[in-house]
Design brief:
By secondary structure, the chain is of the alpha/beta class. The chain folds into two domains: 138 residues, Rossmann fold (3-Layer(aba) Sandwich); 93 residues, no CATH class. Helices cover 56% and strands 8% of the residues. It has eleven helices and four strands; from the N terminus they run βαβαβααβααααααα. The chain has a four-stranded parallel beta sheet with strand order 2-1-3-4, sandwiched between helices. Helix 1 links the parallel strand 1 and strand 2. The relative contact order is 0.11.
């Protein structure tokens, strides 16, 4: 799994690099093209074969320069073709100094037809980033043993009581939490996750743990990421 970051012009410093650092800090792999202006055939081929064709997610950071530049629009074209072909790809367009009307009057007007249309650009890099990471973990969860908390509760209730009672009781207690108390819910779930060793998402868990320690706001998206990691952790421990 990797995230392709597509951009042009001043968006490199102000947005692209910040998204790159944000995703990397949570343990997510990104493709970031450092050769924006002059593309030879070899570099062009490398970006397509190693970046575009191997990425599952694409963040399009679209400003006016993006619309006026041929190669960034070509990157968008390639991703949309994969999307149309039913491939495993999710596109996240982010509009900077332009509107949907500008998109409608450009060669990228096809973006108006995709599911994730233009994540709100008034949000911070962190807020937008968590929306994207949440979607990624929701996708990861589709292939695991449990899709919901009810699935887990039912599973542990069926096990011999000595093997399941503590986790079962914890899951039941969790259901009594206020649904919008994302901070306490996240703390509780991180403690449950720690019962399962060798977690491949340790970097994400640690970053969110430090957010709680530093008394930062825990959003719905942040909480849902941890919820997904718990479902994945328990599912993986049963394989």
């Amino acid at each position: 799994m990797s995230i392709f970051i597509s951009f042009s012009g001043i968006a490199r410093q102000e947005f692209a690099i910040k998204f790159l650092d944000f995703f990397n800090s949570y343990g997510l792999k990104c493709w970031y093209d450092q050769h924006e202006l002059y593309l030879g055939d070899e570099l062009h081929s490398t970006i397509i074969n190693k970046g575009i064709n191997k990425s599952n997610y694409c963040v399009l950071i679209i400003n006016q320069k993006y619309l006026d530049s041929n190669w960034p629009c070509e990157e968008s074209d390639y991703f949309f073709q994969r999307y149309k072909n039913g491939e495993d790809i999710v596109i996240f367009p982010i509009l900077l100094d332009i509107s949907k009307e500008d998109i409608a009057n450009s060669r990228l007007k096809y973006l108006l037809s995709i599911k994730y249309q233009f994540i709100h650009t008034g949000d911070s890099i962190e807020q937008i980033g968590f929306q994207i990471i949440n979607r990624i973990f929701q996708d990861k969860k589709k292939d695991c043993k449990f899709h919901t908390f009810d699935d887990m509760i039912d599973y542990f209730k069926r096990l011999p009581i000595t093997n399941s009672i503590d986790i079962y009781n914890a899951l039941i207690a969790f259901n009594d939490f206020d649904e919008t108390n994302y901070r306490d819910r996240t703390i509780f779930l991180i403690c449950l996750i720690r019962l399962f060793n060798n977690n491949p998402y340790e970097k994400t868990i640690r970053k969110i743990s430090y957010m709680i320690y530093e008394n930062k706001k825990i959003s719905f998206d942040t909480y849902k990421i941890i919820e997904s990691i718990l479902l994945l952790s328990i599912s993986n421990s049963l394989d």
